[in-house]
Amino acid sequence: MVNLYEEVTTPNGHTYTQPLGLFINNEIVQASSGSHITSIDPATENIIATVQAASAEDVDKAVQAAKKALQHQSWKNLPGTQRAKLMAKFADLIEENQELLASVDAWDNGMPYSAAMAEDVPEAINTIRYFSGWADKIFGQTISTTHEKFAYTLRQPIGVVAQIIPWNYPLLMAAWKLGPALACGNTIVLKAAEQTPLSILLLGQLVKRAGFPAGVVNLINGHGREAGTALVQHPLVDKVAFTGSTATAKLIMATAARTLKNVTLESGGKSPLVVFSDADLEQAVKWSHLGIMSNSGQICTATSRILVQRVIYHSFISKFKEAVNTISVIGDQWQESTYQGPQVSKAQYDRVLSYVKMGKEEGATLAMGGEPCAIDGKGYYIKPTIFTDVEDSMRIYHEEVFGPFVVISPFDDEQEAISRANSTSYGLGASVFTNDLQRAHRVAAEIEAGMVWINSSQDCDYRIPFGGVKQSGIGRELGTESLDAYTQVKAVHVNMGLRL
């Protein structure tokens, strides 16, 4: 019999029991095959734990459980106010276990523990709490037509939702998906990223403790090529919500199209950050640094293309380098001083270094970094990388790298800035720095992106919609817009006297 649990101790001293199986029907169960996923600490390259990977058969069990829960009166007939209470309890339990969950995510992902405590877990808590408040405020409308007809609409859950999350903020990305789906009364099968399989199983235990009926939330690990594919193409899945690469999003969309599933896709980005000469330069530099170097550059909206008006270009570069040297302290997850931890995996580490090599070959100037910097000979660490003298045709300018890797390029006027900001297949986020209010709004309207920050970068909020245009995705998460993504409208026509 394969062990379903293992006692482990995090490097910062939390001893706990790590589930190793699949969370289906409110229980940790054994996978049907011998496939597994090994979690590696990216700072030390040591094995943390090995969890079981779902097969297509396991995915079917999870989907069947979700379908049964969707139709069971314990969930189907549960008033929205009671759903809200379950969600609020769930948020409370995450908060009670915040230090442990932050420790596991930091260990598994490589993000600094301080960042996990300040960002990943608190924002997950806030997101669940926010959507708990919406659970009893989702309703249709009455529509006036004639005196012989009474018409109204119902907003109902879409049904069984498949959710696939990335590895860069494991708990937060889970909350972004779970929050609106639960508030709207759906049932869920969520697959975690292969690189970060641990915290999602702890979350499952909190789902059960919160009192959710069995089968409402099912959480699995699995390889994308098997479990992910089986989940997306399952005939009982009504919607797919995915966050990850554009290449994978295209495959998911093609697969979902075979059964016309509803989809929400949040995919890649190569977000521009435009700095005009009248901007507060100190603030522009600080926000620009945060926009690309936080979380080791592993952010889908990372402002990885910085366009600076030519008259301040060299001054900006000089100050940006100073910010990197001062702020981007590289270290393991557990040091208070650490700003940048390792890349999440060897594959991601190799990917970033391959783009450094590519940038040199394309003729750009490597102005800073671009080198491995192992600690005691271990870890997937890379020095913050800055390229200048970058042409728009270069791959490092228009392809997503997903690391501490930025290109900085000059522009002359507003129209050029807009044109070059838009010269990419992506359209997720963008930032504009200027003290000219009219220009700020004008440029924000012209940039092809789902989100534009004016005089900031990356300060997302669970109350504000999040999503992209072009090849950065379809649909929106967060805010009230995400409630639309997890409900469907039914029109009811009542004959009040029309006779044939």
Description:
This protein starts with a strand and ends in a 5-residue tail after the last strand. It is built from 16 helices and 22 strands. It has helices at residues 56-71, 73-76, 80-96, 98-109, 113-132, 170-183, 199-210, 224-233, 246-257, 281-293, 313-327, 346-362, 395-398, 414-421, 437-446, 481-485; strands at 5-9, 15-19, 22-24, 27-29, 36-40, 47-52, 142-143, 149-157, 160-164, 187-191, 217-220, 239-243, 262-266, 272-275, 305-309, 365-368, 385-388, 405-411, 429-433, 451-454, 473-474, 487-495. With 500 residues, the protein is α/β, with parallel strands linked by helices. Helices cover 38% and strands 21% of the residues. The chain is globular and about 75 Å long. Strand 9, helix 6 and strand 10 (187-191) form a beta-alpha-beta unit. The longest helix is centred in the first third of the chain and has 20 residues, at 113-132. It has a seven-stranded mixed sheet with strand order 16-17-18-15-14-19-20, with helices on both faces. A six-stranded mixed sheet has the order 11-10-9-12-13-21, sandwiched between helices. Strands 7-8-22 form a three-stranded antiparallel sheet.
